[in-house]
Amino acid sequence: MAGLTLQGDLVYLRALEPEDLDLVFKIENDEDLWELTTTLTPFSKFLLKQYLRNSHKDIYEAKQLRLVICRKDTDEALGLIDLFDFEPKHRRAGLGILIFSEVERGRGYGAEALRLMINYSFKRLDLHQLYANILEENTPSIRLFEKQGFEPVGLKKDWLQLEGSFKNEYLYQLINTHVH
């Protein structure tokens, strides 16, 4: 089991395993989720197998970290949480989260996973800040991030073109105030 940093009351975060191929395949190829992940084309199982094979790389080498969110009581994989665009010099990274099943959303799993990743990022990676890009109309994600202390710092107008129209996207930041 991962260290206490990545373990909560409801969920724990773990590294990707080869057995996660079907879950990652399902998520990356669900067109309804593409606007959340800015994916444009499906991923093959071959490409995802290669990705999983390389997912052991250190965040300093890969510049990203993807962990699986698992229910603590059943070990069921609920979704993914990502650090991306990791910038060691500036001590910052982007943060994204996805609870795959709509049925499992709103039950506190995402909030706890986010808290665990924030804690890990600030305590273990010594990051100064995290940021998130959230579509203007994605009120559940806005609430989720704001409850964890993220603040909107800008609105990127017509930032993403989705299904023939342009959408605005907020930039949210969380500054680690406990950093020296």
UniProtKB/TrEMBL annotation:
One Gene Ontology MF term: acyltransferase activity, transferring groups other than amino-acyl groups
Gene3D superfamilies recorded: 3.40.630.30
Signal peptide: none
Keywords: Transferase
Family matches, as PROSITE patterns: GNAT (PS51186)
Pfam families noted in UniProt: Acetyltransf_3 (PF13302)
Superkingdom per UniProt: Bacteria
SUPFAM superfamilies in alphabetical order: Acyl-CoA N-acyltransferases (Nat)
Keyword Transferase assigned: yes
N-acetyltransferase domain segment(s): 11-177
Protein name per the record: GNAT family N-acetyltransferase
Organism, as annotated: Leeuwenhoekiella nanhaiensis
Lineage: Bacteria, Pseudomonadati, Bacteroidota, Flavobacteriia, Flavobacteriales
